[in-house]
Write a structure and sequence with these properties.
Order of helices and strands: HHHHHHHHEEHEHEEHE
Distance between the termini: 40 Å
Helix content: 55-70%
Radius of gyration: 29 Å
Structural class: alpha/beta
Number of strands: 6
Shape: elongated
Strand content: 5-15%
Length: 392
């Protein structure tokens, strides 16, 4: 059914990588959510008030807040689609991340309100009526929310949207919440024990716990999380696939919203090659990333001496020793400057962010290793912090 609705209401739905189509997906998902949640809220609100059930009324309020979340999501996609301007040269894509955070906070607020209402119901119990209408509206709500969960998750994964992933989790929570309300209503009717307040308390606690994970997930891209390891590997592999490229390092990826990523990296190429030829290769790599991946990348040319076997052997040896400290460590841009009394050994060393050694401790340790092989070496080591995930 999801695919049928998408074909009917999302123009050019096949081209989900297109920013305009992606926005249409997000806005369509928001409209579907608003319609479904408002309808469920009205149905449950009427039944809950007639039956005097705090958990059903709370569930209705939850659906109403879900509709508000859908409105926030819809506005988020709309704002995120705004083009770049002089004050926001990288566009407005992070509005989508902000809307996802707002949705997560609204989910938490609903959970807190439900806990408070349920505690009051436990402290001051009131009779709850049971009828086939209650069962019917709750079962219908479970079925609708179950479909909404799959609907939001399908679109979220199709367009890589944290906001819609949060919406899908919220729908899953609603299935659990409404199921708990239904079970408590049935048990109360069969045993005469009023579990309405306790069911609401359990559901509220679950929603709060779930919202904490949602807030964390939506905060990460705003704070600047490490890029996806698969993206990092794709960038590295693609750069290394071009003729003349000897190595790449200092990769940085900046995320300004879905589909709005920028990157920079250093590329090692033989110093003996014509610089104009190397520059042309780098230009081609940058253009290919833009055309094929939609990624704007800036590459820095690092010339590497390849016709001096002593420098090459020293580079390989130091790199091997550094990787023995931690396999994620590496060196680059090594050069030597011989003098009458000493040899300057100059290079950069990559340090993973979670390495137990501090930058100064790593520098001193590597310098000591180098002096074991080159006793008259004076090491000038620049420690580069890694800006990609620790797994790389």
């Amino acid at each position: 059914m999801t695919n049928l609705l998408v074909r009917l209401f999302v123009k050019n739905w096949q081209d989900s990588d297109n920013p305009a189509v992606r926005t249409r997906y997000g806005q369509f998902a928001g409209m579907v959510g608003i319609v479904c949640n408002v309808a469920l809220s009205l149905a449950k609100g009427i039944i809950g008030l007639l039956a005097g059930s705090v958990s059903i009324v709370a569930d209705a309020v939850n659906n109403l807040s879900d509709a508000a979340s859908n409105i926030v999501s819809l506005l988020g996609f709309k704002m995120a689609s705004k083009p770049a301007d002089p004050h926001h040269p990288y566009g407005h894509g992070r509005f989508e991340y902000l809307s996802g955070l707002v949705v997560a906070i609204l989910v938490a607020a609903v959970g807190i309100e439900l806990v408070q209402t349920s505690i009051d119901k436990i402290a001051n119990p009131t009779p709850t009526e049971f009828s086939p209408a209650i069962v019917a509206v709750l079962v219908l709500s479970i079925l609708v929310k179950f479909w909404m969960m799959f609907f939001s998750r399908t679109i979220a994964r199709r367009i890589s949207s944290e906001t819609l992933e949060a919406t899908a989790v919220d729908s899953r929570n609603d299935v659990i919440a409404t199921g708990a309300v239904l079970v408590s209503a049935v048990i109360s009717a069969l045993t005469g024990i009023d579990l309405d307040g306790w069911a609401g308390l359990a559901v509220g606690a679950f929603i709060i716990w779930s919202s904490i994970g949602l807030i964390k997930d939506t905060m990460n891209p705003l704070l600047g999380t490490a890029p996806d390891p698969e993206l990092v590997e794709h960038i590295r592999s693609k750069i290394m696939g071009y003729p003349g490229v000897l190595g790449t390092h200092d990769l940085m990826v900046h995320d300004y919203g879905p589909g709005r990523q920028f990157a920079s990296a250093h590329v090692e190429m033989a110093v003996e090659t014509d610089p104009m030829e190397s520059h042309d290769t780098l230009d081609n790599i940058e253009q290919d990333f833009k055309d094929e991946d939609g990624l704007i990348i800036t590459l820095h040319y690092d010339p590497i001496v390849t016709d001096d076997p002593h420098v090459q052997d020293l580079r390989n040896w130091i790199d091997e020793q550094v990787r023995a400290i931690d396999p994620r460590c590496s060196i680059h841009d090594l050069r030597t400057v011989p003098g009458p009394t000493h040899v300057n050994v100059i290079f950069d060393c990559m340090r993973p962010a979670d390495l137990p050694l501090s930058a100064d401790e790593l520098r001193d340790r590597v310098a000591g290793i180098v002096k074991e092989k080159v006793p008259n070496a004076v090491c000038k080591i620049t420690i580069d912090e890694s800006y990609v995930s620790p797994e790389q």
